[in-house]
Structures are given as C-alpha cells and as structure tokens.
UniProtKB/TrEMBL annotation:
Record's keyword terms, sorted: Amino-acid biosynthesis, Aromatic amino acid biosynthesis, Transferase
Metabolic or biological pathway, per its Swiss-Prot or TrEMBL entry: Metabolic intermediate biosynthesis; chorismate biosynthesis; chorismate from D-erythrose 4-phosphate and phosphoenolpyruvate: step 1/7
Family membership noted in the UniProt record: Belongs to the class-I DAHP synthase family.
EC supergroup of this enzyme: transferase
Domain DAHP synthetase I/KDSA: 29-324
Full protein name: Phospho-2-dehydro-3-deoxyheptonate aldolase
InterPro entries the UniProt entry points to: Aldolase_TIM, DAHP1/KDSA, DAHP_synth_1
Role played: Stereospecific condensation of phosphoenolpyruvate (PEP) and D-erythrose-4-phosphate (E4P) giving rise to 3-deoxy-D-arabino-heptulosonate-7-phosphate (DAHP).
Gene3D superfamilies: Aldolase class I (3.20.20.70)
Catalysed conversion reaction: D-erythrose 4-phosphate + phosphoenolpyruvate + H2O = 7-phospho-2-dehydro-3-deoxy-D-arabino-heptonate + phosphate
Keyword Transferase carried by entry: yes
GO molecular function: 3-deoxy-7-phosphoheptulonate synthase activity
Entry EC number(s): 2.5.1.54
C-alpha cells in the first residue's frame, strides 16, 4: 500500500488561480448554452488522443489557443487534455497513472505531474476536455475541466453514470464500442437523476455524496465496427434521443470508430458533418477531432517516445487540423444564417 497525496494537497501545490477558476465556470456555462441552443456556435473538441509529454502538449495548446480566439464568433474550441486512457485489453493507461511510459504505475508522480499540466493548460484560457476513466481520481482533476466524457468502454458502468450526475460540467456519453446507442442513451437518463455515491473528499476520505443530477449530458457518436456520423445515423440517433424524451443534441467524434482509427479519414468525417451542419441540422452541437503536433502515431519503444507524436491513437497533425476548424466555423456560420 502506497499512500497518495490528497486532492487538497495537490490543489494547494498546483492551485487554479482565481481568474482561471472563474474562466472555467464561465466556459462550463458557455458549453451548456451551446448544448441548449442558447448559443448558436459549435463545440470543437480538439487535441491529442492522450498527453504523454506535458511540455509538448502545452506547445500544441499554444497553437490551438490563437486559432480558438480567431474563430470564436463561430466555434467554442475545447482542448482535449486527456490524462487517463481506457484500454480494450491492456496498454499504457495515461500520464496520470504511468507518467514515465515505462510500463510501471506511479500514481503519486502522475497525479502531481498531471495536476500541474492541467493547471497550466487551463491558464492558457482554453476550456479543457477530459475523460473520467477512474472515478476515484476525478477529485484531483475535475475543477480544471469544462467538458467531460464518459467513454465507450465505461458508459454502461453505474459508478461512471453516478459520477456524471455529480460532476459540475457538461458530460458527453459515448456510444459503446459495439456501436450500440441504447447504453449511452440510458447513461444520459441515469446521470440526470439524483444519486448517492461514494467519492474521495478533498482531504482524501471516502465520503458519501448526494448528487442533484446533471442536466447537461449529451450523446457522442464515435462509431463502432462501422461509422455513425452520416445523415442516416445522425437521424437514427436523434430518433433514439427523442423516443427516450431527451433533447436531441449530438457531438460527433471524427476519430475512433468513425475513422476506423485512421487519422487520414478524419477530414472526410469532418467534411460530411460540416455539410450536415451547413444544411441546418440543429442537433449537431459539436465535433471532436484527435489532433496533435505531428501526423500519425508511434509505439512506445524502450520507454522512449517522440514528444510530438501520439503514443495512443493516430492524430491529425496541426497543419491539417486548422483547415478543418475553418470549415467547421464556416458551417456554423451558414447554419446561423439560414432563415
Ligand atoms: O482513445 C484511445 C484508444 O482508442 C483507447 O484508449 C483504446 O485503445 P486500445 O483499443 O488500443 O486499448
Ligand atoms: C478513448 C476514447 O474514446 P472512446 O471511448 O470513444 O474509445 C477517447 O476519446 O480518447
């Protein structure tokens, strides 16, 4: 047994400045406004599949932030700052748990390095996206996060649904790896309810929480064995949400099952979704792109990895990402201009 620092220890050592805390609260409201249709812009959740080199990921954020400001009339750009990775079977589980990429777990270091990264990333002014993989670790990171995801491998899990009912930010529920939508639809319903759940308190004690239910959950279409970003799939997803009495709001993930994990296919997915948005589909509230400094991916070899290349799923390089953001901004503008 190795005792870990408490969430309070780490949020004291790596605190969010008051101005950043305020900005996170504002970003959460903005995203909720986009989801509710009160803000006509489009969410663009963009960034690496995983952060393995914090300095390099901050360099990426330094490219993304000016583009986000330039396109802010049409897009709400959110930076994927993912520090935990769910694995289909086994593999590197992310910076938070295994910060040295050496196959060994070192949560004490990972929590410190990860928290430090998140506070710096939040200070760039970009809203942060984060997948909550281990509910026990959420207390260390949640205050920095604007948009959360419950992933395709955990969306059926009751602890994750209950966590989502308590987290104070909009949460995207991904369809299952199998492509099924009903589990994500049930997750959205479950997270809207009040629950009692065990959680780690700031002082590190296991505590019972009473959640009020999260009104800002929504569906993320990430494909399965076949893609589900096309018009027919989006219509089917809208119908499933409507049949469950849920608001029709959908984020499309251009990566994962929608690109067959081939980053070169992400531009075609984005082009298709941009056309649907230009044609006025109001349910399409956002798009996710896996993007990093360089194009492609690498295996971690002998604990060494290129800093600018993804060590998990292949990403689109920055130079191929910026034009996609432009095209999404244009689509949002066209939708807004429709009578
Ligand atoms: O997003 C990244 C991966 O798709 C996810 O972590 C699963 O990866 P795996 O199937 O290689 O384990
Ligand atoms: C693991 C991810 O996605 P999914 O849950 O859709 O596989 C991810 O977005 O990093």
């Amino acid at each position: 047994m190795h005792p870990l620092p408490t969430p309070a220890d780490l949020s004291t050592a790596h605190s969010l400045p008051a101005a950043t805390e305020k900005a996170v609260a504002q970003h959460r409201e903005t995203v909720a406004d986009v989801l509710a249709g009160r803000d006509p812009r489009l969410l663009a959740i963009v960034g690496p599949c995983s952060v393995h080199d914090p300095e390099a990921a901050l360099e990426y954020a330094d490219l993304l932030a000016p583009a986000a400001r330039r396109l802010a009339d049409d897009l709400v750009v959110v930076f994927r700052a993912y520090l935990e990775k769910p694995r289909t079977v086994a593999g590197w589980t992310g910076l938070l748990t295994s910060p040295r990429l050496d196959g060994k777990s070192d949560l004490a270091t990972g929590l410190r390095v990860g928290r430090s990264f998140l506070t710096e990333a939040a200070a760039t002014g970009l809203p942060l996206a984060y997948e909550f993989v281990d509910p026990a670790l959420s207390a260390y990171v949640a205050d920095t996060v604007t948009w959360g995801a419950i992933g395709a491998r955990t969306v059926a899990s009751q602890p994750h649904r209950h966590l989502a009912s308590w987290l104070p930010m909009p949460i995207g529920m991904k369809n299952c790896v199998s492509g099924r939508l009903d589990t994500a639809v049930a997750a959205i319903q479950a997270a809207a309810h009040q629950h009692t759940l065990p959680a780690v308190s700031p002082d590190g004690r296991l505590t019972m929480l009473h959640s009020t239910g999260n009104p800002d959950t929504h569906l993320v279409l990430r494909g399965g064995p076949t893609p589900n970003y096309d018009r027919a799939s989006v219509a089917q997803a809208r119908a499933a949400l409507a049949a469950a009495g849920l608001p029709e709001r959908i984020v499309v993930d251009a990566s994962h099952g929608n690109s067959g994990k081939d980053h070169n296919r992400q531009p075609a997915v984005v082009a298709d979704v941009a056309a649907q948005i230009s044609d006025g589909d109001p349910a399409l509230v956002g798009v996710m792109i896996e993007s990093y400094l360089a194009d492609g991916r690498q295996d971690i070899a002998a604990d060494i990895a290129r800093r600018d290349l993804s060590v998990t799923d292949a990403c689109l390089g920055w130079s191929r990402t910026e034009p996609l953001l432009e095209s999404l901004a244009l689509a949002a503008r066209r939708r807004r201009a429709r009578p």
